[in-house]
Amino acid sequence: MKKLFTTMITLTLITACFAGCSDKNPSVSNTTSQTESTNTQEKEETSQTDNNTTTNTESVVPDFEYTPDTDFEYEFDSENDGIRILSYTGSATKVIIPKEIEGKNVIAIGNSNSVFKDCNSVTTVLIPDSVLYINSHAFMDCESLTTVILPDGVTNIHTGAFENCTSLTNINIPNSVTKIAMSTFYNCNSLTSITIPDGVTEIGDSAFRFCSSLTSVTIPDSVTTIDELAFAACKSLPSITIPDSVTSIGVNAFTNCYLLENIAIPNSVKRISDFAFVNCTSFTSISIPEGVTEIGDKVFKGCASLTSVTIPDSVTEIGEEIFLDCISLTSIQYQGKTYNYDEWRNNFG
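Now predict its structure.
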């Protein structure tokens, strides 16, 4: 009897053990199923993200194809451990610069030469986020180029980078750029508007000279210097606001801006250099702010519509013939006196 009782207990324990194992297996199965479901969802989300990225890129550069490495001549920059693109030899109209070549990041476009010289068919160029430098004359004379997409991260756009890109209408300047170098957009005469980002401190010589279709310019309050000829011959520009951060307006900075009617010169400006506003023939009046101490030679020469000018007492140096050929000028206020054109010339030249 005792033996039978022991056998029954053993059978009961075995049954319980199998029952426990049976209970655990569905749990493992459910976990596996849940993991697979999660992985599937992650794959779907990744796929959706990839699709969105492709869609966004295509919306920026429609109907593009990735440009093969073999369409470029390049060299290794040992100092910066990256690839410098030297020239484009392909025939596509929309070009995407590769992010990597031979396992190295592409970090620079150009080497004081035009990468797209004689590539008259190229209309659009997309630059990857690995690129830090747009070197001198990189896109010079690309006469069919209409759109360039620069990534955040570009820190330097060097001299004449887009000079004579006469069809260029769209370009973004990244916030990482700190200077608009000399002749960067010289003679980009299809460019209609430009926003200079916060962080830029200097607008270089002839940076936008001969941008004859330019009608809108936004200058941030990080800019301290507008160099000579910076906006010369921007003959469609009707107005511009110079921020309070600017201390100097360079020689010929706005020469031949024929439609420029309004310009706000801030109190921060100390010097208005020679010929700064020559032939701004739409000027009717101008007020020079307190804080300016020097007005250079022939600053307002040929401003034929200018009728009145106020010069503050802070000005202690006045150049030669600052109002030469200002044939409509009748009122010049300076040091508590009002002069007409002839009186001014007799007293100040």
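The CA atoms of residues 117 and 142 lie 7 Å apart.
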